[in-house]
Amino acid sequence: MVPVPVFWVLACCGGCAPLASQVLGATLGNTSPLAPVIPPEGKYVSAAPLGTIGPTVRSLRFPSNLAGGFGYSVDVSVSTPPTSEADQLRSLRRALLSPPAAPPCTAGWTAESVWLANQQRWDRPLPLADSLDLAFPLPRQYLRESLVLDLVIEDATGSHCNRLPLGSPDEVGMTREEHTSGGGGFGLILGRPVQSGATAASRNPYGFVVMGSFGRWLGRWRLGGRLEACFGSCAAGDFITAPAVATVERLFYRGGLLTIAASVGYQVGRIEDAINSLDGHATWAHGPRVSLLVLGPRPFAGANPSEGFAARGLEIFLQRQFFSVGAATREPPTWLLGLAVVAL
């Protein structure tokens, strides 16, 4: 096989580096890769139909920036449709984010800002419209617990406490508005040719793998693919090789401390295979792969457990790799065993 220029592979796999560095930095910042998850980002919408009577939570949004190292910022959008003529005189006295065990409307984190009709308001009581946006600081340790939103609303009959759950730990939680996700990882890979003998034994592959992934969640399923870069003795004659793998992943167990997932995939080829085929040297490395993933828990307690979510953890995979040139076989099939820290 004609050696592949290093700059070709680096150019094709350059997108893997930022993903891998993000995962590496996040993982090294914690003693265990399984205990935390990737901070929830993006917008989550209610999985249950919104009611027409009284306030209801419409969506949650976790901005990408941390709240001054204190924790996370949580933006809550609330629908407050009027139900009677008296409701037209309603006003918001106070908004609190608190654990369910706290007495209603008496304890918790006060909203840092309140937006009404796209305008930030500081006056209290605040006349209510059909929608309300609130921003709260959230300490890190409470990200794993169920939370409630307490609204103290005044109307013609007096003050009333409205307690709204921010999702729930059952199958009706908050689902992500955007179902595509990217990730990455890094790890080690070892291999052994299927055939024994001195020639085959001298080709035992090994190396360090950096990967980037992209997929779309369909409930508990994630359909997508990976582009990897393997550095070392990963293939005969090449210090760097860049496999492309199509994957199907599924969440099987979702607990409070960890998530178990499985993945099946197929290495459809390598970047250098496509490049070399242009020169008439059509060596093709391909084969099936199976993986077991042990990931962190849901990103927050209200996330719908039936939906995919971002998490990081450990992956172990086994692959059978075949080398073919047209209809002929140049090298013996190889078993590959890999262990990596990954993020979905």
Biggest sheet: strand arrangement: 13-14-15-17-18-19-20-21
Beta strands, count:
21
* Distance between the first and last residues' Cα: 34 Å
Report the total helices: 4
Major sheet size, sense and barrel closure = 8 strands, antiparallel, barrel
Going by helix content, strand content and strand pairing, the class is mainly beta
Quote the average pLDDT.
79
Instruction: Supply Rg.
Output: 26 Å
What proportion of the residues is helical, as a percent range? under 10%
Principal-axes geometry comes out as elongated
- Strand coverage percent: over 45%
Runs in which pLDDT lies below 50 for 5 or more consecutive residues are 1-33, 198-202
Please describe the structure with a list of short key phrases separated by commas or semicolons:
344 residues, 8-stranded antiparallel beta barrel, disordered N terminus, mainly beta, 4 helices
Task: Describe the fold and architecture.
The protein is mainly β. An 8-stranded antiparallel β-barrel has the order 13-14-15-17-18-19-20-21. The chain has a 7-stranded antiparallel sheet with strand order 7-6-9-3-2-1-12, with no helix packed on it. The relative contact order is 0.18. The protein is elongated, with a radius of gyration of 26 Å.
